[in-house]
Each structure stands twice: as structure tokens, then as C-alpha cells.
Design brief:
It is built from 6 helices and 6 strands, in the order E-H-E-H-H-E-H-E-H-E-E-H. The chain has about 180 residues and is of the alpha/beta class. The chain has a 6-stranded parallel beta sheet.
């Protein structure tokens, strides 16, 4: 039987946004306030948590795949110590100018892959992101509930819910996630 999931964007949601730049090394990675509690709640309610992130810094050769893997391993170790680790991580490292890329947001490919590989029910899932491309990815995958964390990016795509930052994410999830 397929399971529901909550999909999370990384920069601006799981960790504080680096602004115009990239998180290129672990010392630059800082968890967003309230994100650990939000992930714990998802686990407690029986939802699979999946990270779906665009990491163009690898494609631009500002960092290596090994650097990205180290950041994610350290992130996971911290989250694991709090019972909040992601079940899976999907990262598109392609350049936005790569005409052969099929995984870059707003493509639904990362979510569709996660659903196939982890037996997830997209129709019962949620997505949390901070940019139009995140919300569009969820919509394109058939995810019915999208939550936008406000950012400095212009917003043209309407999300189901909007929050000013991640501090209220756990409280919102508590209201919208039925226990499984």
C-alpha cells in the first residue's frame, strides 16, 4: 500500500537561504528555525519525508558532488539524532541552461522518482517550498497541498498555504496532516 509523503525543498526551507549564492560547505549550512520539529511531526503522523532540491552549484563547478554529499550526510546525521532524518534525498545538479536536463524544477521528475522508488502516494502528499518552481513541481506531480515559505523571490504561482517563515511550519502541519 502506498504511503503519503511530505516533500521539502532545501535552501530557504530546511536551511536558511544563502541569498544569491550557494551553500558550498557545511559551515555555511544553518537549519531553519522550527524545521526539526516540523520533520519530527511528519514522522509522528506517519508521513515519509523526502528532500527534493536543486543544487546548481555542482553543475557550475563551485562545489563537487562529494561536497554536496558531505553536506547532506552531515544534515542527515543531525536530523537522525533528533528522529527527523529524510527517507530520501533527490538533488538536481544540472545547470538551468542544460537543454538535456529533465529533473530541474518545475519538472515533477524528482517527485515521480521518489514515488516510484519508495511507494509513495502523491495524491495524499504535501510539498513545502519557497519558490514558484517548488510549488509548480508539486502541482505538476499531482501533489494536492502545497505550502510556501515566503522568500524574497517574486510569487506568481499560488500555494495552498503560505507562511512568513518556518517557525510556524510545525503548527500548520499539525492542522493539515491527518494522523496515519
Amino acid at each position: 500500500m502506498s504511503r503519503p509523503a511530505v516533500f521539502f525543498d532545501r535552501d530557504g526551507v530546511v536551511n536558511l537561504s544563502p541569498g544569491a549564492g550557494y551553500v558550498l560547505r557545511w559551515p555555511d549550512f544553518h537549519f531553519s528555525p522550527g524545521i526539526v520539529e516540523a520533520l519530527q511531526l511528519c514522522h509522528a503522523r506517519g508521513y515519509v519525508t523526502v528532500l527534493a532540491t536543486s543544487q546548481q552549484g555542482v553543475g557550475r563547478k563551485l562545489m563537487s558532488q562529494a561536497d554536496l554529499d558531505e553536506i547532506h550526510a552531515r544534515m542527515q546525521a543531525h536530523l537522525q539524532s533528533h528522529g527527523a532524518a529524510f527517507a530520501a534525498i533527490y538533488a538536481c545538479t544540472c545547470l538551468s541552461t542544460d537543454p538535456g536536463c529533465t529533473c530541474r524544477k518545475p519538472s515533477a521528475e524528482m517527485l515521480l522518482r521518489a514515488a516510484a522508488e519508495h511507494d509513495l502516494n502523491l495524491n495524499q502528499s504535501l510539498l513545502v517550498g519557497d519558490a514558484d518552481r517548488d510549488i509548480e513541481m508539486g502541482i505538476n506531480a499531482g501533489v494536492p497541498v502545497t505550502i510556501r515559505i515566503e522568500s524574497e523571490n517574486a510569487h506568481h504561482v499560488k500555494a495552498t498555504h503560505t507562511l512568513p517563515d518556518t517557525t510556524g511550519l510545525a503548527a500548520l502541519l499539525e492542522r493539515v496532516l491527518p494522523a496515519r
